Amino acid sequence: MQDIAQYNVNYIRTLFKKYYSSNFVSSPIAIESREVGIGELGKKISARHLSFKNLDELNAFLRTTAPFFVSYSVGYYRHPGMRPMEKKEMFASDIVYEFDADDFSLPCMNEHDVWYCSNCQTSGTGHKDICPNCQGKTEIIEWVCDKCLGHAKSETLRLMDFLEDSFKLDPNTFFVSFSGSKGYHIRVTDKSVQHLSKSSRLQMTNYIQGKDIELERLGFAFKDRQWYCPPKNSLGLSGKLLLFLKNYITTMTEAGLIKDLGLTKAKARKVISNKEVILNKMDNNILWHGFSKDAKGDAKFWEDLLNLAISKICFRIDASSSMDIYKLMRMPDTLHGGTGLLSCHIKSREDLKSFEPLCDAVVFREDISRKIEVTRPVPKFSLMGQSFGPFEVSQTAELPEAVCVYLLLKGVVK
Ligand SMILES: [Zn+2]
Ligand SMILES: [Zn+2]
Predict the structure, then answer these.
(1) Within the chain, which residue ranges are assigned CATH 3.90.920.10?
(2) Centroid of ligand 2 to alpha carbon of 376 (angstroms)
C-alpha cells in the first residue's frame, strides 16, 4: 500500500472527529472491564492497555483523538488498564467468530482483486505474486463485492443457528457486527461460555469446524461390510448429517455425483436408479449398498458423501482467533481506518438479513465531491448502491466524499 499524504490523513482525521462529535458510541458491553486498543493508518493496533470507566469517558476520548482504528478486548478484566497482562486479572471472556469475505476463495475474487507491479506498472485481475513482465514482486489489492460479503453474511447467520442449536446458547447473547471492511463478527457473551477453560473452547471450536468427528459415535458405522446410519429424527449433528444425506439423495443428479464424489457415469446412473430403495433403507438405519462389486467401493461412496456433508454443515472459522482470550476486536459503532466504513452493531437477525454493508455502513454522506488521482488500478466497485470505476493509474476523477475516503484509505488514489 502506498503512503497516504499527510494532508489526506489530516482531512480524514477531521472527518472522523466530526463523526465522533455527533455520534455517541454506545454498543460496547461492559466497557469498564475491557482493555481498549487503538490504531493508526497501516497499523490496526498501535497502542493498547487503555481503559475507560464508562461510555462517556470513551466517547470524550474518541471525540478528541479520533483514532483510525478502535478495538476492545474479548476478555473482561478487574484492572483493564494495568500491565503486564497478568495484573489486569481476567475474570471472564467472550468467544468470537469471524467471517471474512476473502476466507472463502469465491470466484469473484478473481474478478475484483488486483495485482500491480509498481516496478513496470503492469497489472491484472486475480492474485499473482510475481510480475510476469519483469519478475518483480507485485502488490495485491483486495476488494469486496456484494457476492462475497453476502456469503460471509449467510455463514454468519448459519453459525448463529448452529450455536443456538448445538450448544443451546441464548441467541440474545450473540453480539453481531459488521467489521467495517470485509466481513462480520459474532461475539458470544452467553454466561455459559464466558468461563470456559482453554480445552473446552478448543473442543467447541473443533466441533464447529467438524474436526475429529467420530462418525461411529454419531451412529454412522461400517460393520460386517455394511454401513449403518442413525435412526430418523435423530438430534444434533447425527440428525443434521442424516438430513443432508437424505436431501442429497433426493435431489442428486448424474453430473453432481460425478463432480462431488468422483463416481463413474455408470455408477452414478446405478445410484440414481436406486433412489427410492436407498431412501427406504435409510429409514431402517441402513445405508444401501449394491452398486459396487466389493463392499469397499460402497464404503467409500458413503464415506465421501459423509465427508461432503460435514464440509457443508460445519464451518471454516479461524480457530486461533476464536481461541484467543486476550484478543482485541474491532469495537462496534467505530470507524474502520482501512475503508472509512462504520463497524455497525447489527441488533437482530432480521436486521442482519437486510443489512447491506456497502450501503448501510457508509457514513460520510454529505453532498460534497472531491477530486482524486488514481495511483493503483481500481476495478469496478460499488458503494452506496452506485457503481464506480474501473479507473486506470493516473486517471483523475471527481467523486462523492465517501467514495474518496474509501479509495484514499485503500491506498489506491491520492
Ligand atoms: Zn513488473
Ligand atoms: Zn467478491
Answers:
(1) 6-103+162-204+319-363
(2) 19
Supply the pLDDT for residue 292: 65
Distance of CA 144 from the midpoint of ligand 2 (Å): 5
Instruction: Give the Å distance between the CA of 128 and the centre of ligand 1.
Output: 11
- 89 — alpha (psi -120 to 50), left (phi > 0) or beta? left
- Residue 143 Cα to ligand 2 midpoint, Å, equals 7
Per residue in 241-274, pLDDT (tens digit) is: 999 999 999 999 999 999 999 999 999 999 999 9
Of all residues in the chain, what percent are helix, strand and coil, respectively (each to 5)? 40, 20, 35
| pLDDT over 60 (residue 1) | no
For 215-313, the fitting CATH number among 1.10.8, 1.10.1660, 1.10.860, 3.40.50 is 1.10.8
- The CATH architecture to which 6-103+162-204+319-363 belongs is Alpha-Beta Complex (3.90)
Sign of CA dihedral 76, 68, 368, 383: negative
CA 243 to centroid of ligand 2, rounded, Å: 30
**Three-class secondary structure of residue 118 per DSSP:** coil
The predicted-structure confidence for 5-51, as pLDDT tens digits, reads as follows 999 999 999 999 999 999 999 999 999 999 999 999 989 999 999 99
Distance 262 CA to ligand 1 centre (A): 40
Whole-angstrom Cα distance, residue 288 to residue 278?
5
Residue ranges matching CATH 1.10.8 in the chain: 215-313
